[in-house]
Prior knowledge:
With 385 residues, this protein is α/β, with parallel strands linked by helices.
Amino acid sequence: MKKTVLTYYDERMLSHEPTGWDAEHPEWSDAVKIMIAHQYPEASLETYAYPERPERLIAIVERLLADPVDGQCWRRPTPATRAQLERVHSAAHLAYIESLVGGSRWLAQDTTAVSPESVAAARLAAGAGVNAVEAVTAGEGPHAFCLVRPPGHHASADHAMGFCLYNNIAVAAGHARVALGYARVMIWDWDMHHGNGTQDIFYDQPGVLVVDSHCAAPFYPGTGSLAEAGAGAGRGYHLNVPLPRGSGNAALIDVFEQVVRPAARAYRPEIILISAGFDCHYLDQTCAMDETGFAALTQQMCALAHELCDDRLVMVLEGGYNAQALSDSAHAAIRGLAGNTISAVNALPTDEGRAAVAQAARFHAGTIAMLGAALGQRSSGAQPG
């Protein structure tokens, strides 16, 4: 059955365009060069360009225009308001980001930078997630894809990091909780990099269940161990699945089958959000997925949303830096959201990530059981002990 896919995009997000190295902070440039050499040893530092570039979105849009997806509906987002951003970011952080309007500079030695229109682009990126959860809630379409930049999942409550100024998925989740009244929101972050900012923001909150599959430390940002499971009332509501480099489609499908689906069935989310980074694609040189894997994951998540929360599913773009891989993968995901099925998934002869997933599933089994028990206690009016 074909489904409507609300696709949020605004060409003004292309105006976020940092370039080159930071001449005013040579020590930051040196630190970035060391990081790049460690993570991407074949990369040329002489020809380095800011990876989070406008061509990322251009490639996806051009692919969707050249090969339209039946059911896709384009929408323009509205910028996030200060009140919406304040649900997950500190006042000091918002004031700092606002102070960058009209300027060009690097913010830290981990490649985060701005150009004169970057803050306006970031407001639109955060606003897209808000618009999407509102539209899905109103029944305007069961599924939405937010085609945005800059990405968001590394931005914490009070710190910009890893190309990210505002945490787009967290702003969407915060809006779903506070403005739309959802008691239980679930996020799966399948980007290759751990969503440390999302984890930081919701670390003590049981109203948001976060599953995060990513390359294990010391890969950037170096967080996301199995033991990072939440704190206080949020203990057990963070399920990290650290994976080795080279993990492929089979490993990520295992993450869904062994961690995401059991956790979702125990937690019973009322809406599901996905931090949809596509940098696990083999053309991004670190992992070994391809577009058939992303199509399969999307198809499975649609089925899960249909089972648990009346189809409500929103995907928000995170990473993915090879234009061909990004356009192929995003197109495959949007086709999946529209109800298209995939007949075959490519798989490696040996996928070392599968053993890591099995280890994580064993580690989280008790926590997942706890999620179901806690939900049962809340439903009966009892309080968790």
